[in-house]
Amino acid sequence: MTLLSNALRGDAVLHQIPDASTRPRATPATVCLPYRPESVGAARRFVCAQLREWGLDDLVDDAVVIVSELATNSIKTGCQTRMLIGVRRPSDRIVRILVGDGSRSMPVMVQAGPDATSGRGLSMVHRLTHGRWGVTPLPFGKVVHADLATPTPNPR
């Protein structure tokens, strides 16, 4: 569990070196959810509330789609331990959404045909993050992370 906790803290993925323009980091937030379909809605509400608390309302729509897709994929693994959802601010310019689970099964971005009823989730995550997403394998699972750029503050 320590490795998954460390990965959700952001230690295991994409380190950023803050520059002078960054403000102090927001407090990371994590929630543990069961592997049930209704947990996807709980993950959406959690991420939405956290972004609004940080004043990042402009990111809510994209973040909700991202966490929905990643949590849905996690539920589909059939893992029976627990799913962790995390939201981090590794820098003033990035919000990181993390979904950790107990499965070593890696997500795969596929080309869904026009008649397919599923298979487009990771493509949407890829588009919304401009390719800034990835997976950190762990001894007892994995963490999938997706980074959204925060709006550029207006100079005063």
* Derived structural class: alpha+beta
**How much helix, percentage-wise, in residues?**
25-40%
Q: Mean of the pLDDT scores?
A: 81
CATH architecture grouping: 2-Layer Sandwich
Q: Calculate Rg over CA atoms.
A: 15 Å
The low-confidence runs, each spanning 5 or more residues with pLDDT under 50, are: 1-24
What is the tally of helical segments?
4
| Count of β-strands | 5
Order of helices and strands: HEHHEEHEE
Spatial order of the strands forming the largest sheet: 1-2-3-5-4
Give the distance, in angstroms, between the N- and C-terminal Cα atoms: 44 Å
CATH superfamily: Histidine kinase-like ATPase, C-terminal domain
Structural write-up:
The protein is α+β, with helices and mostly antiparallel strands. It has one domain (2-8, 26-111, 118-149): 2-Layer Sandwich (Heat Shock Protein 90). The protein contains four helices and five strands. Helix 2 packs antiparallel against helix 3. The longest helix is centred in the middle third of the chain and has 17 residues, at 60-76. It is globular, with a radius of gyration of 15 Å. Mean pLDDT is 81; it is low at 1-24.
